[in-house]
Amino acid sequence: MLIVFDLDDTLIDTSGSVTPFKLNLIFKMGEERGVLPKSAEAELIQLNQKSASSKDALHEILRRYGALHLFEEALSLYTAPLPHDFAIPETPDAKNVLQALYGKGHRLAVVTGGKQPFQLEKIKKAGFELSMFSKIMVPEDSIKKPCYETLLNEFLALPSQCAVVGDRVPMDLLPAHELGLRTVHMRWGRGLLWKNENWIDHSIRELSELLEYF
Ligand SMILES: [Mg+2]
User: Fold this and answer.
1) Dist CA 186 CA 32 (whole Å)
2) Domain map (residue ranges) of the chain
3) What is the pLDDT of residues 142-172, one digit of tens each?
């Protein structure tokens, strides 16, 4: 089986670590520039919880305060390197589960949207062994379908021999389902925004549940 993982809120606890740190940095930037009041920090956190991406939440808070001219700068801050000693936690038992799947002979890959250096930095900071992954793809526009197609071709896998594990139903799982791949919804962080859909094959809270299916 070829098992393709999303990164943020699937292999790593982005919502519990990187996101609050980055939102605070961006809030402080807006406050220093005199465009965001103190109350905007809590507002930004709330917005982020309801948004499909942090990018959407940043756009909305800056729009509300007439500060969209700072949007590009905010995005740059969001994907700028993390402090040297910043630790990123894995989601529960992620590394052990990957090792176990790898040990069972499954081929593992990562498809994660965003800026490549930032996404790779997060994988490394969380302590994942990169050699375990046959391929890591980082589409900057977060459009994953062409990546799934590339993986199927490259590894000569039938759609039924490929599964995608991710938290965001429209971005991670729907394109996989359209290609006939098996889909696993990780209900973590941002992934809690989406309910189970009847076409989703498995819904999990922790990656260890994958060992029952694969
Ligand atoms: Mg994700």
Assistant:
1) 37
2) 2-13+87-213, 18-79
3) 999 999 999 999 998 899 999 999 999 999 9
At 48-69, the pLDDT tens digits run 999 999 999 999 999 999 999 9
2-13+87-213: CATH topology is: Rossmann fold (3.40.50)
Q: What is the pTM of this model?
A: 0.94
CA–centroid distance, 34 to ligand 1, in Å, is 32
Q: Report the separation in Å between the CA atom of 10 and the middle of ligand 1, taken as the mean of its atom positions.
A: 6
CA of 15 to the centre of ligand 1 (A): 9
Angle at 176 between CA 170 and CA 181, to 5 degrees: 145
Which residues, by Cβ under 5 Å, contact ligand 1, an ion? 6, 8-9, 167
Between the CA of 38 and the centroid of ligand 1 the distance, in Å, is 29
Q: How far is CA 184 from CA 22, 34, 76, 204, 205, in A?
A: 28, 44, 31, 7, 10
